[in-house]
């Protein structure tokens, strides 16, 4: 890949991956409510899901999602329902006026939820399926094509991780004031739950 093509790949990846969506929202909310460490763990979780999509795309299995609108819709709905589940958990969480954080979940659960949020986002799979092949060698044999797609995917992952960490650090800076404010944990739960449920509703409207 020449310098011009590499610059084009990096620039397009920054724009497409950096656009706000379920992944960035999840990272930002964890940083806002639990601090930078949880945000960083969330970013690593999101990119772990991305790694799965890279392998799937390189093997050509993502074409199943593209070829089946029903499957795509089913995965989208599942992702929306999972976001709704996270929001409802916050609504049911017991209020504690002296709590410092919202839903201060163990980091293992933070990581697990992050991976699930990304894996239930079919747009991620379609992004890799539609975007990465544009920069691969035309007419390459299958082995070479898989290798190129893997390398391009790793490049996109590294760019995505950098952007995710920026979201985590930035949200933590805002969250320090948010967490330190004299706001009851119940009110904080309602704010974050509303964001999760709003995104879930938007995803359902888009899918159906």
From TrEMBL:
<protein>
    <submittedName>
        <fullName>LysE family translocator</fullName>
    </submittedName>
</protein>
<dbReference type="Pfam" id="PF01810">
    <property type="entry name" value="LysE"/>
</dbReference>
<feature type="transmembrane region" description="Helical">
    <location>
        <begin position="190"/>
        <end position="207"/>
    </location>
</feature>
<keyword id="KW-1133">Transmembrane helix</keyword>
<keyword id="KW-1003">Cell membrane</keyword>
<feature type="transmembrane region" description="Helical">
    <location>
        <begin position="149"/>
        <end position="169"/>
    </location>
</feature>
<keyword id="KW-0472">Membrane</keyword>
<dbReference type="InterPro" id="IPR001123">
    <property type="entry name" value="LeuE-type"/>
</dbReference>
<feature type="transmembrane region" description="Helical">
    <location>
        <begin position="38"/>
        <end position="65"/>
    </location>
</feature>
<keyword id="KW-0812">Transmembrane</keyword>
<feature type="transmembrane region" description="Helical">
    <location>
        <begin position="71"/>
        <end position="88"/>
    </location>
</feature>
<feature type="transmembrane region" description="Helical">
    <location>
        <begin position="115"/>
        <end position="137"/>
    </location>
</feature>
<feature type="transmembrane region" description="Helical">
    <location>
        <begin position="6"/>
        <end position="26"/>
    </location>
</feature>
């Amino acid at each position: 890949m020449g310098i011009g093509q590499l610059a084009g790949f990096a620039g397009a990846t920054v724009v497409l991956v950096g656009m706000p969506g379920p992944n960035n929202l999840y990272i930002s909310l964890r940083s806002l409510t639990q601090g930078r460490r949880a945000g960083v763990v969330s970013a690593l979780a999101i990119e772990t899901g991305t790694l799965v999509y890279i392998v799937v795309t390189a093997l050509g299995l993502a074409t199943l999602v593209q070829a089946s609108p029903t499957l795509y819709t089913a995965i989208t709905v599942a992702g929306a329902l999972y976001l709704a589940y996270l929001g409802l958990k916050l609504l049911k969480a017991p209020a504690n006026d002296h709590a410092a954080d919202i839903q201060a979940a163990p980091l293992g659960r933070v990581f697990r939820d992050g991976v699930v949020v990304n894996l239930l986002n079919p747009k991620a799979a379609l992004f890799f399926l539609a975007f990465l092949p544009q920069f691969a060698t035309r007419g390459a044999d299958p082995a070479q094509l898989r290798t190129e797609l893997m390398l391009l995917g790793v490049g996109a992952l590294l760019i995505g991780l950098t952007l995710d960490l920026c979201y985590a650090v930035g949200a933590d800076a805002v969250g320090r004031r948010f967490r330190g404010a004299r706001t009851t944990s119940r009110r904080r739960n309602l704010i974050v739950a509303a964001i999760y449920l709003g995104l879930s509703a938007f995803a359902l409207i888009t899918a159906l």
